Amino acid sequence: MILSELEELYALPFFELLKRSREVHERHWPDGEIQLCTLLSIKTGGCSEDCSYCAQSARYNSGVQVERLMEKEQIMERARAARETGSTRFCMGAAWRGVRGGTQRFEQVLDIIKDVSTLGMEVCVTLGELGPDEAVRLREAGVTAYNHNLDTSPEHYPNIVTSHTYEDRLRTIRNVQDAGMSVCCGGILGLGETITDRLRLLEVISSFNPQPESVPINSLMPMPGTPLAENPQVDPFDLVRMICVARIAIPQAKIRLSAGRTRLSDETQALCFFAGANSIFYGDKLLTAKNPAVEKDRELLAKLGLGTLLPNPSLEAPQADCELPASPACAGAGCC
Ligand code: SAM
Ligand code: DTB
Ligand code: SF4
């Protein structure tokens, strides 16, 4: 969808927008289930990049302890535990600028993925920048989806990150698509962006061909020591509106209500689910930040009568629409 269409939707009266997104949601997701995803930081802190929201950048004194790549057996234990608690997707994150073939750490990660993928959950990884060969090897090892967020609009991105570009991010996404993995791509609210920046992000993401399989909507978790530590909290109604517009613009994607749920009331989360959010990170910790306790989430889902999605480890990457150019719309992003 183009910016003017997204702006028109965003400007609707709140209940009218909710009604429209609910209609789209019910049409595409008639079972109304929520996917539970477990997140694990397999390599924490010490990252070379300067993303100004991130506690894992080596450039800020956030107090995050730098940790080496976790041992495979420890990761397997966490993955088995995630499956036991009902997660159908296991997402592994690493604080790297990217990975390169031929390095020992890439081979180690491939070996980990091979084992995790035997457990019957969808396997998602987020390791930073990828070239085409690395992307193919990750798919062959058993990755179902690759998370690589664009985070904000192409215009606002250079205010937030200077050590890599929006175009670098788009190139990785293209490599992921070409390798046949599903794309998980979303953003963060609360980076000092305007509503137009948020809608520009949706314009870029919704113009991918194929559209992403999942779209995480994070609210900034202000991390001490980072340049954005004092940013104000996102207005909950703005968050719900963003979810509504994302649901309408990217109807077949799982919209993940991601970082920031510890600061949302149950009622706001319920509105997000009504608007079309159908996936959450489940477990007491995100990468370094807090997430609601498992028991609290169970209680909330039960209170709302929301069921959870069954595993689909053979998740196929969405197919491109042959009538459209088969790549992320860089032209739409105006960045190259
Ligand atoms: N290094 C890889 C990368 O940048 O793609 C993977 C890990 S990175 C931490 C994954 C995503 O987490 C970021 O793109 C951002 O959307 C989200 N994130 C990081 N710190 C955050 C924070 N303080 N609040 C909300 N989301 C955050
Ligand atoms: C995503 O969009 N959000 C997750 C996951 N993808 C990797 C990460 C959230 C990180 C929140 C801050 C932290 O835990 O340090
Ligand atoms: Fe590194 Fe990713 Fe954090 Fe940026 S968001 S500093 S690339 S871990």
Percent of residues in beta strands? 5-15%
Strand order of the largest sheet: 5-4-3-2-1-9-8-7-6
| CA gyration radius, whole angstroms | 18 Å
CATH architecture: Alpha-Beta Barrel
Q: What ligands can be seen in this structure? A: S-adenosylmethionine, 6-(5-methyl-2-OXO-imidazolidin-4-yl)-hexanoic acid, iron/sulfur cluster
Largest sheet: 9 strands, parallel
According to DSSP, the number of beta strands is 9
Distance between the termini: 20 Å
> How would the global form be characterised?
globular
Structural class: alpha/beta
Order of helices and strands: HHEHEHEHEHHEEHEHEHEHH
Give the low-pLDDT segments: none
CATH superfamily: Aldolase class I
CATH topology: TIM Barrel
Helix content: 25-40%
How many domain regions?
1
List the helices and strands and how they pair.
Layout: H1 3-10, H2 14-28, E1 35-43, H3 72-84, E2 89-94, H4 104-116, E3 122-126, H5 132-141, E4 145-147, H6 157-160, H7 166-178, E5 182-184, E6 187-189, H8 195-206, E7 214-219, H9 236-249, E8 254-257, H10 266-275, E9 279-281, H11 294-304, H12 330-333
Parallel strand pairs: 1-2, 1-9, 2-3, 3-4, 4-5, 6-7, 7-8, 8-9
Helix pairs in contact: 2-9, 3-4, 5-7, 8-9, 9-10
The protein binds S-adenosylmethionine, 6-(5-methyl-2-OXO-imidazolidin-4-yl)-hexanoic acid and iron/sulfur cluster.
